[in-house]
Write a structure and sequence with these properties.
Elements lengths: L15 H9 L6 H7 L12 E5 L25 H14 L3 E5 L9 H10 L3 E6 L12 H7 L3 E5 L5 H8 L3 H14 L11 E5 L10 H16 L5 E4 L6 H9 L3 H10 L3 H4 L7 E4 L5 E2 L2 H5 L17 H4 L29
Parallel strand pairs: 1-2, 1-7, 2-3, 3-4, 4-5, 5-6
Antiparallel strand pairs: 7-8
Length: about 350
């Protein structure tokens, strides 16, 4: 089908409504129809175990696969006031985990305050880190800060080979990432005896599904230890979502239909039960609520009648809510499944 060339920020095609249209016109069945055919519709939440908070789109990198379209030029940053409301929700609703993401979440000027307050109330805190931020001026003491507060670090490293990582995230990123991993190791991360959890994240470089997570984790562990002396606790494999910059690449190469057909062909109904939206609520930088971080980037808010902003959070209404879906959801249910906690179905 004829399409404009790129999804550059600011172009008409970059608008979420246009991305949704492209995915709907790829010749694949609507995701909701596929759910219904298997008796899995409507998809509903099953409690709230994680409050995932996107504290902004500001980032020190511009990665080709980024579904947030984050970068150094972005100015969307969560205020301390909105963070305070998130903390109040954690306390009132008894949600056990705060999952902090971005952009590079550490670049939010209130990041450390948010983390310290959440840990003080006994919540498990996850920092979704791009690694290179740990080498930037003003951030180089972050490994110690995170270790002192026993924050779990989930760090993106698309491959254990330099050329593949740099192709996705920019020249020199792999070497910087290895330096950052060594700094995390030096304060105890990745060492089983320390209890400081370091999880790496793999994304395919191109339009393909991730390989089985256990085998890839073993390869990462062997290669990173032998080549660089780096240790970590686990690996998440995450499917590239066909939105934002990755959709841009697909369109530029004329492969958007091919990729969607691949996702639909690999649809796994067993993965549906474990998709992250069933136990997570996503909070945008401006406090708006979504079923997941991917819906957030497509401006797919919660269903009518549900709270739309963190200040209106209502656990009773949200814990069993019906989830908003669209064709990008095939990305979370293809193969072994995919989400912020990696593969869903054991390989």
């Amino acid at each position: 089908m004829p399409l404009p060339t790129l999804l550059r920020q600011g172009s008409p095609l970059a608008e979420p409504i246009n991305q949704l249209r492209i995915l709907a016109e790829c010749g694949t069945p609507p995701f909701e129809q596929t759910l219904a055919a298997g008796g899995l519709s409507p998809l509903r939440a099953n409690g709230i175990e994680v409050l995932q908070v996107n504290v902004g789109k500001l980032c020190n990198q511009t990665c080709r696969h980024c579904h947030v379209d984050a970068g150094p030029e972005r100015r969307e940053v969560m205020s301390r006031e909105t963070m305070a409301i998130c903390l109040d929700v954690l306390a009132r609703a008894g949600i056990p985990t705060l999952d902090v993401t971005g952009g590079a979440p550490e670049m939010n000027p209130h990041f450390r305050w948010l983390v310290a307050e959440a840990r003080a109330m006994g919540r498990h805190v996850i920092d979704r880190c791009n690694l290179t931020i740990l080498l930037a001026a003003g951030y180089d003491d972050l490994p110690e800060f995170l270790a002192e507060r026993r924050v779990e670090v989930v760090a993106s490293l698309p491959c254990y080979l330099p050329q593949n990582t740099d192709a996705q995230r920019g020249a020199g990123v792999f070497d910087k990432s290895i330096t950052a991993l060594r700094r995390l190791n030096a304060v105890g991360y990745g060492r089983p005896e320390s209890g400081l959890v370091l999880t790496l994240v793999y994304n395919p470089v191109g339009p393909s599904l991730p390989p089985p997570q256990p085998g890839l984790e073993a390869a990462y562990r062997r290669e990173l230890a032998d080549r660089y002396g780096v240790a970590f606790n686990g690996l998440f494999t995450i499917t590239n979502m066909p939105i934002s910059r990755f959709l841009d690449d697909l369109i530029r190469e004329g492969r958007q239909d091919e990729y969607m057909e691949k996702l639909v062909g690999a649809y796994n109904p067993a993965a549906v039960a474990g998709v992250m939206c069933r136990t997570t609520v996503s909070v945008g930088w401006d406090g708006r609520l979504y079923d997941c971080d991917f819906n957030q980037m497509l401006c797919l808010g919660l269903r009518a009648g549900l709270p739309r902003h963190i200040r209106d959070f209502d656990l009773d209404k949200l814990a069993g809510r019906q989830i908003v879906t669209a064709n990008h959801c095939y990305g979370c249910t293809a193969g072994a499944g995919s989400g912020c906690q990696g593969a869903i179905v054991p390989s």
